[in-house]
Amino acid sequence: MARIITLCNQKGGVGKSTSAQNLSVFLAALGKKVLLVDFDPQANTTSGLGLNPRKIEKSIYHALIGKIPAGDVVKKTGILAVDILPASPALAGATVELVDMRSREYKLKEILEPLRRKYDFMIIDSPPSLGLLTINALTASQKVVIPVQCEYYALEGLADLLRTIQLVNSNLKTRIAILGALLTMYDRKSRLHRAVAKEIRRKFPGYVFEAVIPRNISLAEAPSFGKTILQYDPYSHGAKAYRQLAEEILRLEGIRKV
């Protein structure tokens, strides 16, 4: 049964899609079968793996509103054992259509359930907001990874998100656990970045990954070529950091590498 992990942060531009893509490929490189679920209408994860979201005939939107089974939407990425449930801009309209549906907060969970036996991990990339799509991404998952940029307002955003997850757990009868906060776009030469990282570790002890994602040119360039960092620059600092993150998650989940 797949373990389902959502990458979530209500702020945009924190490296969420980059982390979803690269965590998935490094979990696959360590011998796991992974389904990458793009649940963001911006579809950055879909385009980052070389698919054109505007040319996809069937996307996760069609499965979500009940037109077709999610299994009919899954596409091979050609990268190791990573499949993708692609997004398209149509997903933005799903929020309106979901409002009148029964169990509207659990639709993503429902469509993923039949696929869980086929994968070791499902990694969900959620939208940069706290709307109905993000609530669906949270209720579908068991664990949450929170990418956090090392900047001044990061602490407030992290505290707000932790409160939101507590509210979801208490109101929707879920048991979502925090796997960890992931420091992204880190520049060790920056005094501010070092100070913010230290403060996050102090305020949220035991909830911050040892792996830190550096500010890295290769990581920024890779999506424009429709590639992950493993394909684009496998020996870069960014690639090493995502490999370390994948290994750390396997260790935290008590799963052996193959």
Report what the structure shows.
This protein is an alpha/beta fold. It has a single domain (about 5-250), classed as 3-Layer(aba) Sandwich (Rossmann fold), CATH 3.40.50.300. It has helices at about 15-30, 45-50, 60-65, 90-100, 105-110, 130-140, 155-170, 190-205, 215-220, 230, 235-250; strands spanning about 5, 35-40, 75, 80-85, 120-125, 145-150, 175-185. A seven-stranded mixed sheet has the order 3-4-2-5-1-6-7, with helices on both faces. A hairpin with a 5-residue loop joins strand 3 and strand 4 (about 80-85).
Quick recap:
The protein is α/β, with parallel strands linked by helices. It is built from eleven helices and seven strands.
CATH superfamily: P-loop containing nucleotide triphosphate hydrolases
The largest pleated sheet is described as:
7 strands, mixed
Ends: how far apart?
Answer: 17 Å
Q: Give the strand content.
A: 5-15%
Just give the CATH class. Answer: Alpha Beta
The number of distinct β-strands equals 7
Mean pLDDT metric: 93
**Alpha carbon gyration radius:** 17 Å
Q: What count of domains describes the coordinates? A: 1
Report helical residue fraction: 40-55%
Which keywords apply here?
single chain; 258 residues; alpha/beta; Rossmann fold; 14% strand
Task: Describe how the helices and strands are arranged.
Blueprint: E1 3-7, H1 16-29, E2 34-38, H2 44-48, H3 60-64, E3 75-76, E4 82-85, H4 91-98, H5 107-112, E5 121-125, H6 132-140, E6 143-149, H7 154-172, E7 177-184, H8 191-203, H9 217-221, H10 229-232, H11 237-252
Parallel strand pairs: 1-5, 1-6, 2-4, 2-5, 6-7
Antiparallel strand pairs: 3-4
